Amino acid sequence: MSDESPVSLACAVLTVSDTRSAGDDTSGNLLAQNLARAGHQCVRRDIVKDNVYQIRRILSDWIADPEVQVILTTGGTGFSHRDYTPAAVLPLLDREIPGFGELFRQISHTEIGSSTIQSRAFAGSANQTLIFCLPGSNNACETAWEQILREQLDSRHRPCNFATHFKNREEDN
């Protein structure tokens, strides 16, 4: 870590669930709290049913919003017939970040063993907005945050991080 001031990112958290409500959205709360502790702002937050078109509607609005730099989704990335997050989000991406899903499953293997192959966690970017799609469990969200996202959204992390891309964009304007 360097001594420079960290870049504060404008983030959004979307919980994809047919059963969660604002009162029991523990994984969404965990992500929003971790963002705040890291000095980022949670500028948008929502819960949506696991429906391809409802997910796309919200994400498309956030992707088009210049105030949103990073989107974290939680839920809908499993392998059941009701998990639609990949089908909803992948067509919206301009570019995928394959290493995120690969690393997440590698780390998860130490926690849940071979069950990690049923995780379809992934990441990418759309309209210069980073999107990270995480499983819905608190444990998976905590693992993704502590092992990957905390550092990659910290502009002081070396040798590279995603936050620096936003700092460079601001300097270009």
TrEMBL record:
Specify the signal sequence span: none
Q: MoaB/Mog domain spans which residues?
A: 12-156
Name a Pfam family for this protein: MoCF_biosynth
GO terms classed as biological process: Mo-molybdopterin cofactor biosynthetic process
* SMART domains recorded: MoCF_biosynth
Name the UniProt key words of this record, in alphabetical order.
Answer: Molybdenum cofactor biosynthesis
Keyword hit for Transcription: no
Asked if the keyword Signal belongs to this entry, the reply reads: no
Listed Gene3D superfamilies: MoaB/Mog-like domain
Please state the pathway this protein functions in, per its UniProt record. Cofactor biosynthesis; molybdopterin biosynthesis
InterPro entries referenced in this protein's UniProt entry, alphabetically: MoaB, MoaB/Mog-like_dom_sf, MoaB/Mog_dom, MoaB_proteobac, MoCF_biosynth_CS
> Would you tell me the Gene Ontology cellular component terms?
cytosol
The UniProt entry's sequence similarity note says:
Belongs to the MoaB/Mog family.
What does this protein do, in the record's words?
A: May be involved in the biosynthesis of molybdopterin.
This protein is called what?
Molybdenum cofactor biosynthesis protein B
